[in-house]
Structure formats: C-alpha cells, structure tokens
Design goal:
Order of helices and strands: H
Radius of gyration: 9 Å
Number of strands: 0
Strand content: under 5%
Largest sheet: none
Shape: elongated
Length: 23
Amino acid sequence: GTEMPDAVEIIFQFALALGRYGG
C-alpha cells in the first residue's frame, strides 16, 4: 500500500502469499 512502509508492505504481501499457497 502507498501509505505503508516498505517493510510492512513486504510482510503483508508475504502473509497473503502464505495464506494462498500455504492453504
């Protein structure tokens, strides 16, 4: 997101990926 720091953005995307690919 444009209002998030880069680190938070990366963690958020990583969590989403885990949710999708991790089942």
